[in-house]
Amino acid sequence: MARAGITMLPQIVVALLVIVFTGLLAHGARWLLKRGLKRTGLRPSLQELFVMLLGIAIWVLGFMVAAVVMFPSLTPASMLAGLGIGTVAIGFAFKDIFENFLAGIIILFRKEMRTGDFIECEGIEGRVQRISVRETHIRRTDGQLIIVPNAMLFTNPLRIVTDLELRRITVIAGVAYGEDVDEARAVIRKAVEGCETVVRNAARPIQIFAQEFADSAINFEVTWWTGSKPVDERKSRDEVISAVKRALDSAGIEIPFPYRTLTFKEPLPLLRGERSEASDD
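Predicted structure:
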C-alpha cells in the first residue's frame, strides 16, 4: 500500500494542482462575467444566477479532470454516466429543493416581478426585498420579513400591486334620499378633483356614478387613480374621504346614518273578563 501510495503521489500532486487551478479559474471567470453583466442592465439576482452557474460548471469540469488524472482508468463517458445516475438519485432525494431552484430560475427571467415590487400571494403581502434562486424575501408593511419558497410564488396566483405606477381606488359615498342627486354628484366631483393625491388627466378620469338605492341613502361609487404603493393608496383614500365629507357638510347635503322605524299595530280588543279585571285595577 505504501509503494502504491508513493507510485500515485505524482498523480495526487497533479490532481491537487488541477483543483487549485480550477479555483483560480472559477474566481477569475466569475469576476469577468460579473463585470461584463453589469453593463447589460440585467437585474442583480439574474446576474448572480449566471455567475453561480458559471462557477458550478468550471468546478464540475475541474473535478472531472482531477479524477481522470488520479484514476487513469476513468473515461469521460463513464464519468458522465455516473454523474447522470447520481443526478437522478439526488433529484429524487431533494425534490422540493430542486423544484424551488427551477421555479427561482423562471421567476428571475420574468419581467413582471422585480425587486422593490409590492406583491400579494396566498395571504402574504409586502415588498419584494430579494429574489434568490431558492427563495424570495418579502418585507411586509408592518416590518416583518417573510421568506417564501419560489415554488409557492410560481404555482399560485400572484398579484403584483406595483406592476403599473398608478392604481385605481373606489369608495362608496352615500347621501340622503331628500337630496338632489345631480348636485351631490357635482359636489363630490369637485371635492375629489381638489385632492393632491388624485391623478387628473383624460387617460385616468375621475368617475362618479350613482350606484344603488341603499337602506338609508343613495350610494355613489367614487373612483379615481393614484400611486400604486400601499402607502399611496392609504394617503389618497384618507384625503379623498376627508375632502368629500367636508364638501358635503359645507353644501348642506346630508350624509345619513342607518335609520330604523318601528311600527306597532293597534292594541288587541280585551275579553269581558279581562276588561272587568282591568277596571277593578
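Summary: The radius of gyration is 36 Å.
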